[in-house]
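Q&A log
Question type: sequence-to-structure
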Amino acid sequence: MANIPKIKGAKKLAKTEVVPFTRQLASMIGAGMPILSTVQTLEEQCANPEFKKVLGHLREKIEGGDPLSSGLASFPALFDDMYVNMVVAGEQSGEFAGIMKRLASIMQATARLKGKVKSAMTYPTVIVSIALLMAAGLIQFVVPIFAEMFSGFGKPLPSLTQSLVDISEFVKHYWYYVGGTVIVVVLLFRKWKSTERGRYKFDEFKLKMPVFGQLNLKSGIGRFCRLLAQMTNAGVPILKSLEVVALSIGNRVLEKSILDARKEVEQGNQLNVALDGKPFMPVIMVRMIAAGEKAGKVEDMLDSVADSYDEEVEALLSTLTSLMEPFLMVFLGAIIGTIVLAMFLPIFNMGSLAT
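Response status: OK
Response body:
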């Protein structure tokens, strides 16, 4: 039995190497090359030393008489359950090349959409962080200079300026309390989020938060429908497909809803009945699945639902991007502008302060 090599940077490899490997594998198998020759060729051409180890292990497993899926299962950080189960379905059905092409397309589309969602959610975080850092810098280093300059006037400062000076003095003398509190809060939040209940509640919050909640929900439902359609289309049994898709969805709340629906399907209910009424399962999706089951084309209907939700996510992202930029600029200007106004307000009132 081949020893499983230790792979460095598996997360990066999963993003950069797995999709090209899947496409090349599908193309070469589709052209009639045996699986062993295909993996050997890809191993020889691989420029990444870490992924080359993976391909070497796959080759050794195949040479030992094991199927490709057995070797892929050795690297769960690179090839998740969905990937392995679809490869198993391809090996058993004889439609390996076609299934691998669909798998590569799914992974590429999913990665692109997740990248867009992440980018849309990262942008406001960066702007708010910049605003807070600039405000902290002004309060810590600039405001004390102005406070010292105004201290000799002998008259009370405007309330806005005095409030800013008080904040500056507090931060100056008790910065370690402020910093310590922030660190403790972050650590407690991370510890809470690492618990099962915390992760569930945080994932629930991500689905309920204004605007971005709809973005997370639509992208999650689109992914669910897309993966379920492809897995059942590849010949993976519906119960196994629901289990794998639930664990691949990336949200504990949606995962629980899908797994609860799976139990009902296992008891003999249709998929639409099982999903109906489950938390965050859209009614329109349930109705379209019901229509697909009635027509005997549930995979086609799932693909159609996924396309619809992907389009909605794209449209929502486009709208968010166009609206967010001016809003964040106003927010940034308001924070910095308020501080600057507070510092210069005594200068504007210099005449009354000096008398």
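Response note: The chain is about 80% helix and 0% strand.
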